[in-house]
């Protein structure tokens, strides 16, 4: 069966859904193809940190009613080094910008509900298998759904299909350079039914390895520990996880509350990006074009930042016929992506164990940490990157 629309969007993640809402608000028809079920994407546990820009955009889109009630606004973050803690305040260092903790799956639920309510076509369990004609003015996406083969012709294709998606693979290999950096460790993340032991996030370096205390709600905690790349979930019992978290996050006069773990996953740490995010009528956004280690809490926020540029460029094209903003799309996105790569890399190397305790490299980590506590300039650098720069 053949379908037609203006913008064919592959992927109902934060990137695809936000783009659809921005386009629909400007009267530009689009269709989202999502190869998973609605239930699957709405329950896929991932990120949880929303930058100020992301929260502002969700509010501007009218998709933040639940976020405004259930989101946990933070005005500071705690950094720890072998039990010594520094708090980095956001208000005085960033002019009142902050972060909000709100699970990515909740963002996706809110975006899907808003999109469907506004009549946006989201085809679930629709698997894009081929994108043709990206050098023409009428590219076509081939997809399967319910065992049937379909085509979707459109004016533009938005590749919002994540790191393993089809879109980047559709770009001619010589149309971009790839940058890859694999970190020699992974994160084991848990969700537990226990009240958070801290009102703010705690990023901790410890000689046994990194740990992060995050939150999800007054009764659910989100926590992570650094594990080896070869580790498997079955290597980590609940008891062992809680023991390591308690040691690594430990500080004088503070104790980590424990509770039943109901979600466990291991995520490899890597940086990936390409230096061109478009080819003809195909535009990539989000994880389809870049991956950052989650230490900076940037993945989801970068996806939304790309979309702000892409939506502006597409709306400008349909309103004026001019292609200038479309031509500038990649360079506009890459400024923020490189900034996020650098900050995520800085936070990753500062807080993860990579060198022997007491070695030159390890003492350099300690010196970097100590500097944050004595320099307003360095604390401001961390604060403004962490809450997200308003403009890059
Ligand atoms: P997404 O991957 O979210 O969405 C792409 C969508 O496209 C998916 O729904 C997929 O099913 C669909 N798709 C793929 N191929 C398709 C095809 N052929 N046809 C149709 N649909 C197709 N970021 C953080 O900031 N903090 C974190 O703690 C964090 N943890 C993470 C943990 C894991 C396990 C992973 C994988 C990522 C994590 N991230 C984290 C990064 C994550 O949040 C991403 O940055 C974010 O999901 C990016 O959003 P999208 O670009 O929309 O891609
Ligand atoms: C999360 O709450 O999932 C989270 C928070 C901060 C990060 C990464 C993940 O840097």
Estimate the global geometry from the Cα principal axes. globular
Largest sheet: 8 strands, mixed
Q: So, the CATH homologous superfamily of the largest domain? A: FAD/NAD(P)-binding domain
**Could you say what the CATH architecture of the largest domain is?**
3-Layer(bba) Sandwich
* Topology, number of strands: 21
Number of domains: 2
Report the helical percentage: 25-40%
Strand percentage = 25-35%
Care to describe what's here?
This protein is an alpha/beta fold. It contains 13 helices and 21 strands. It has helices at residues 14-25, 38-42, 52-60, 65-70, 91-94, 104-117, 167-170, 238-249, 299-320, 324-327, 329-351, 360-374, 376-387, and strands spanning 2-4, 7-10, 30-33, 49-50, 72-74, 76-81, 84-89, 99-101, 121-123, 126-132, 140-145, 148-153, 156-159, 178-192, 202-205, 211-217, 220-227, 261-274, 278-279, 282-284, 290-291. The chain has an eight-stranded mixed beta sheet. The protein is globular. The mean pLDDT is 97. Arabino-flavin-adenine dinucleotide binds at residues 10-16, 33-36, 41, 46-47, 49, 104, 127-128, 160-162, 165-166, 265, 267, 286-287, 294, 297-300, 303.
């Amino acid at each position: 069966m053949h379908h037609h629309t203006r913008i064919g969007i592959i992927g109902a993640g934060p990137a695809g859904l936000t783009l659809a809402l921005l386009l629909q608000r400007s009267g530009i028809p689009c269709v989202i193809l999502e190869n998973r079920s609605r239930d699957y994407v709405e329950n896929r546990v991932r990120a949880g940190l929303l930058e100020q820009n992301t929260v502002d955009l969700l509010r501007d889109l009218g998709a933040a009613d639940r976020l405004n009630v259930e989101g946990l606004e933070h005005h500071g973050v705690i950094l720890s080094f072998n039990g010594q803690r520094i708090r980095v305040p956001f208000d005085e260092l960033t002019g009142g910008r902050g972060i909000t903790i709100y699970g990515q799956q909740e963002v996706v639920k809110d975006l899907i509900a808003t999109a469907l309510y506004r009549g946006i076509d989201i085809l679930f369990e629709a698997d894009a298998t081929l994108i043709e004609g990206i050098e023409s003015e009428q590219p076509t996406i081939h997809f399967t759904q319910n065992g049937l083969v379909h085509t979707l012709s459109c004016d533009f294709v938005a590749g919002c299909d994540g790191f393993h998606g089809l879109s980047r693979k559709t770009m001619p290999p010589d149309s971009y350079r790839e940058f890859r950096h694999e970190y020699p460790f992974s994160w084991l993340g848990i969700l537990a039914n226990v009240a958070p032991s801290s009102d703010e996030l705690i990023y901790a370096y410890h000689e046994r390895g990194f740990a992060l205390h995050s939150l999800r709600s007054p009764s659910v905690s989100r926590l992570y520990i650094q594990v080896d790349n070869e580790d498997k979930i079955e290597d980590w019992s609940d008891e062992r996880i809680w023991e390591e978290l308690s040691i690594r996050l430990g500080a004088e006069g503070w104790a980590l509350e424990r509770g039943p773990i109901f979600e466990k996953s291991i995520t490899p740490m890597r940086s990936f990006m390409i230096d061109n995010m478009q080819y003809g009528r195909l535009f990539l956004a989000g994880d389809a074009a870049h991956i950052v280690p989650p230490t900076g809490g940037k993945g989801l926020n970068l996806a939304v930042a790309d979309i702000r540029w892409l939506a502006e460029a597409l709306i400008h094209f349909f309103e004026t016929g001019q292609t200038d903003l479309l031509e500038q799309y990649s360079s506009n996105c890459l400024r923020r992506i490189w900034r996020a790569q650098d900050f995520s890399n800085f936070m990753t190397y500062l807080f993860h164990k990579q060198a022997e305790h007491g070695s030159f490299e390890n003492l350099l980590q300690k010196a970097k940490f100590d500097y944050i506590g004595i320099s307003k300039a360095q604390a401001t650098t961390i604060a403004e990157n962490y809450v997200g720069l308003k403009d890059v």
